[in-house]
Amino acid sequence: MKNVKTFAQYREIIESADFESGIPEEYASIPEDTVKELQKLNLSISAAESLTAGMFQSTIADVPGASKIFEGGFVTYSDESKAQLLKISSDVIKKYTVVSPTVAQAMAENAAKMVGADIGVGLTGVAGPTPLEGSPVGTVFIGVYDKIQDSGVAREFHFEGSRQAVRLKSVITAFVLVQRLIHQ
């Protein structure tokens, strides 16, 4: 990982990596490294998850001491739960669909603001087995939001593999995006 110079290079590597048997060893330390970095910087994190259904937040909680930086978040699998729990306008969801950078960014921002966290993450997309709202399986949008700077970014990914592999790639990539956000 340390020799990867740009996010574009990392993106190519992760999109083509084999996650069928779980998280490959070379990526296994990314969640813990991210949590430790957040602890060191005294930054809190929250998330709103759709396709990953809590895996990102569960992975945070797997790290000892996670309670210092993680108070909670949201699993908003349906359109209705995104509107109801995250206060994302149903008009926005209808206009852009839930598989969009707009909704991923709104998920990240609203999760941070509603929990009072410094960093918010939003994960939405299509894990499969069938396409959703015109988006093919493996289409994922991940938003990250920095409450302190009041700014964020949403990125689009096209992950290959089984439903579980797409979800695991999404989780690891979200941690990488958090690292990029806190080090920019």
Residue fraction in strands: 15-25%
How many helices? The count is 7
What is the molecular shape? globular
Counting helices, strands and paired strands, the structural category is alpha/beta
Q: Give the neighbour order of strands across the main sheet.
A: 2-1-3-4-5
Helix content: 40-55%
**pLDDT averaged residue by residue:** 94
The counted number of beta strands is 5
Uncertain runs are: 1-5
Task: Give the termini distance in whole angstroms.
Answer: 18 Å
Tell me the series of helices and strands, N- to C-terminal.
HHEHEHHHEEEH
Q: Supply Rg.
A: 15 Å
Largest beta sheet, briefly? 5 strands, mixed
Describe the structure.
The protein has 184 residues and is an alpha/beta fold. It has seven helices and five strands, in the order H-H-E-H-E-H-H-H-E-E-E-H. The chain has a five-stranded mixed β-sheet with strand order 2-1-3-4-5, with helices on both faces. The radius of gyration is 15 Å and the shape is globular. 45% of the residues are buried. Residues 1-5 have low confidence and may be disordered.
